[in-house]
Amino acid sequence: QEAAKYEKKVLVLDFVLPTPLGNSWGLGGTCVNVGCIPKKLMHQAALLGQALQDSRKFGWQFTEEVKHSWMTMTEAIQNYIGSLNWGYRVALREKKVTYENAYGEFVGPHTVKATNKRGVEKLYTAERFLIATGERPRYLGIPGDKEYCISSDDLFSLPYCPGKTLVVGASYVALECAGFLAGLGLDVTVMVRSILLRGFDQDIANKIGEYMEEHGVNFIKEFVPIKGVELSVTKTTSGLWRLDDLPFEEKTQDLNLTWQSTEKQCSLYMHAVTDVAERNCCDVLNKWKFRTGKIPVNDEEQTNVPYIYAVGDILQDKLELTPVAIQAGRLLVQRLYAGATSKCDYANVPTTVFTPLEYGACGYSEETAVEKFGEENIEVYHSHFWPLEWTVPSRDNNRCYAKIICNIQDNERVIGFHVLGPNAGEVTQGFAAAMKCGLTKEQLDNTIGIHPVCAE
Amino acid sequence: GKKEYDLLVIGGGSGGLACAKEAAQFGRKVAVLDYVEPSPQGTKWGLGGTCVNVGCIPKKLMHQAALLGGALKDAQHYGWNIAQPVHHTWSVMAEAVQNYVKSLNWGHRVQLQDKKVKYFNMKGSFSDPYTICGLTKSGKETIVTAENIVIATGGRPKYPTHIAGALEYGITSDDLFWLKESPGKTLTPFVFNVSLECAGFLTGIGLNTTVMMRSIPLRGFDQQMASLVTEHMESYGTKFLKRCFPTKVEKLESNRLQVTWKNTELGTEETDSFDTVMWAVGRAPDTETLNLEAVGVKTNSETGKIIVDAGEATSVPHIYAVGDITEGRPELTPTAIAAGKLLAQRLFGQSSELMDYENVPTTVFTPLEYGCVGLSEEAAGQCYGSDNIEVYHAYYKPLEFTVAERDATQCYMKMVCLREREQRILGLHFIGPNAGEVIQGFALGIKCGATYPQLMKTIGIHPTCAEEITKLHITKRSGLDATVTGC
């Protein structure tokens, strides 16, 4: 959309390879269809469940029994997503960007082959290319995983209530999904290989886990596959799926299965590599690292091929976040066509995990700060707090938590911000802006709080 | 001679308690006098001041009750099956809120004890610059002397003076939060934030509520934002009688109140009956019984508030004042607390740091909340000239409103910046859910001298409302449509 502003002739190829269970979706990518948007809406549904309970303490009266309908929620969410898919198509049309619902692959220098749903192939040439194909959830590679298990790609449009669910993995995706499923009243178990929320501040990650456990989510921790034992999934006669040979007591526990993973691969890219290698057309991808399958770029989002760029989740060593992708994409185009020089600033990118107790963060975790600066050179200020709105319903006192990490050697500059509490995203955003301005502890102390809110 | 205390604080509210506790940290001998004169309707409360008892705290809790009513409606769209009808019971809410407030009263008493601050439940007045005469409820007198005295008696709601029946039959916010029974059909004349906030939550819990305003709402606030706030309230169900002012209040046989008012636009006189009339015509500083004349503490002739310098000192040495009682200061809890603490630090802690009243963020907790920091658009234009300021703005829709099918017409934000190259941010205004949470962090940014380019370099958190602030790019000057579209 940004390139079209500069009157460039632009083509967008978008294609969704169906999930193993046959699920697919429209234009907009992960965020809109199977990421941020449906996730936040389902999280909201779960929060509303809690609000219902709180409201009684605030004087609202209604029947004791309140049930949740998965179908009503999912239909409403899917309708909204459909409107976004449509909105994107209209926006592209209005901006005169050509859109093709086709699968793109490199077939030669400056040339891409696009294959649509019906197998019809077209060739396109372009002066420049932008790879922004993102990622798909990884399967663990055990018998039965693709036939019987789902991933987040399937969850948000599941045409039946997932019921009693096992979530395998402890990434933010796993915990967010487990969190809202439990909030909707489902029996949820999370299977964790080692730690929660790898890459995030571990002190906070553990608090998140504790909160979830207190609120009814079961955790099977430090589950490690025993050497030589193969895990398999079979369907029982009663219609439930059974995970066999699990190294824990109740081996014949009947569980519904969903599949989340702690790492991802970009399958489309791998597919393209295979094709190119087979056809031996060009050197394009030979130098690229295959460790994670991601694409490395320089600080201007340029790959090792000068006319090919990449943005978003597909990038190696970059944050997998929608706003980062958007910013990087826009700035790239402004540099290419509008003579701008600004590069995407990947430092201090704020993020929020929408677990039942939300977690907003910006900058260093405590561990990484200690590692980089040394424990004696950082100061951590912290506090537990009780949101005013939770006092009347008498819940969760001392669960909310905030900490800032300051660099003593640099004027006590705030290098890390962490908040665990309601509306964590709304709270964190402004602090991220302040950190961009070089916030120090003194400036923070001199700022007056807004009363009564959590952020103060 | 030697005084009993190093510091005596008159008024156990936000400012007073903060000052007293801070002074005690330095090992000083400190005493606090707190006394609540019952309202005309007979309402009274415990230690903690306005904020805790009849301000921020109960107001936000009742606002939350109203928001939860909205959540109940939303929940149906998100798949929760709640059998209709849904009722709200005032007494359940009021009791819960009042119990929480009482726990805070208790908490404050415990804190004072822990910090070895002496607490007197007495009404204080000056005998001389170092001597206070304290009077208990039963009339017993106690003399207390101190080296330094801090006046932090705050304010109380005013009653209109020229309206028959106003005092006998009307209530104020002092009474509203302590009512045991529902206020029923309510009228709140005149329009300060308190009245809008109260009218808002009363509407939200299902009561028939009318706001009467003579001229403009939220005087002193950005007027564009103020209209959006009241527009939203109108669509939310609060009735507005604009360009009207009440002339008399009479009691009917049914015990209801008959209010007569003048409509200045139509030139007519109208009347209607209500269960409750709640006045919100402003607050008067609580100085009458202090006997300030005896010691010569100067007050502003118009407002009656105590005049202080940048160090919170009054015209009399060793007598200071903080909080709502002081002239020219924002009437906010956090500024009172900060001023009180800094004062104690200067008096006893060898500090010289003065209170900075610039860029104090605030939030109005109307049904659709309004948070702001810095200058209003009008003030910025007046200060710098409208040609020298740039206003970036956007209408947006919170994600949670989509499935809930809620109207987001008044969800709006604007950033007022200097137009010259650096583009320093002068003011930020946000209307939407959780406005206080959104604005707080940006207030820090403004404290750091944030500029528009710095904000644009900040990556947004997705999906939130606050991220839209980092994406503001349409200026009012351009005349382009400022509605946010897409993801």
From TrEMBL, chain A:
- Establish whether keyword Oxidoreductase is in the entry: yes
Q: Name one GO molecular function term.
A: NADPH peroxidase activity
Q: Which reaction does it catalyse?
A: [thioredoxin]-dithiol + NADP(+) = [thioredoxin]-disulfide + NADPH + H(+); H2O2 + NADPH + H(+) = NADP(+) + 2 H2O
Query: Where in the numbering of this chain does the Pyridine nucleotide-disulphide oxidoreductase dimerisation domain appear?
Result: 349-456
Q: Which SUPFAM superfamilies match?
A: FAD/NAD(P)-binding domain, FAD/NAD-linked reductases, dimerisation (C-terminal) domain
Q: Give me the Gene Ontology terms describing cellular component.
A: cytosol; mitochondrion
GO biological process per UniProt: cell redox homeostasis; cellular response to oxidative stress; glutathione metabolic process
Its cofactor is: FAD
EC number(s) reported in the record? 1.11.1.2, 1.8.1.9
Which of UniProt's keywords are assigned here? Answer: Disulfide bond, FAD, Flavoprotein, NADP, Oxidoreductase, Redox-active center, Selenocysteine
Is Nucleotide-binding one of the keywords? no
- InterPro entries per the record? FAD/NAD-bd_sf, FAD/NAD-binding_dom, FAD/NAD-linked_Rdtase_dimer_sf, GSHR/TRXR-like, Pyr_nucl-diS_OxRdtase_dimer, Pyr_OxRdtase_I_AS, Thioredoxin/glutathione_Rdtase
Source domain of life: Eukaryota
Q: In this record, what's one Pfam family?
A: Pyr_redox_2
FAD/NAD(P)-binding domain residues are 2-329
Q: Which family does it belong to?
A: Belongs to the class-I pyridine nucleotide-disulfide oxidoreductase family.
Q: What does this protein do?
A: Reduces disulfideprotein thioredoxin (Trx) to its dithiol-containing form. Homodimeric flavoprotein involved in the regulation of cellular redox reactions, growth and differentiation. Contains a selenocysteine residue at the C-terminal active site that is essential for catalysis. Also has reductase activity on hydrogen peroxide (H2O2).
UniProt protein name: Thioredoxin reductase 1, cytoplasmic
Tell me the organism: Charadrius vociferus
Automatic annotation (TrEMBL), chain B:
Keyword ATP-binding attributed: no
Q: Where is the FAD/NAD(P)-binding domain?
A: 5-340
Domain Pyridine nucleotide-disulphide oxidoreductase dimerisation stretches: 360-471
A GO molecular function assigned to this protein is:
thioredoxin-disulfide reductase (NADPH) activity
Identify the SUPFAM superfamilies for this entry: FAD/NAD(P)-binding domain (SSF51905), FAD/NAD-linked reductases, dimerisation (C-terminal) domain (SSF55424)
Query: Using the chain's own numbering, where are the disulfide bonds?
Result: 51-56
Which is a Gene Ontology cellular component entry for this protein?
mitochondrion
Which cofactors are required for activity?
FAD
Q: What is its EC number?
A: 1.8.1.9
- Binding positions for FAD per the UniProt entry: 60, 124, 324
Q: Where does NAD(+) bind?
A: 282
What highest taxon heads this organism's lineage?
Eukaryota
Give a GO biological-process term: cell redox homeostasis
- Which keywords does the record carry? Disulfide bond, FAD, Flavoprotein, NAD, NADP, Nucleotide-binding, Oxidoreductase, Redox-active center, Selenocysteine
How is the cofactor bound, as the UniProt entry phrases it? Binds 1 FAD per subunit.
Q: Which Pfam families match?
A: Pyr_redox_2 (PF07992), Pyr_redox_dim (PF02852)
EC class (word)? oxidoreductase
Q: Which residues form the active site?
A: 462 (proton acceptor)
**What family name appears in the similarity comment?**
Belongs to the class-I pyridine nucleotide-disulfide oxidoreductase family.
What this protein is called in its record is thioredoxin-disulfide reductase (NADPH)
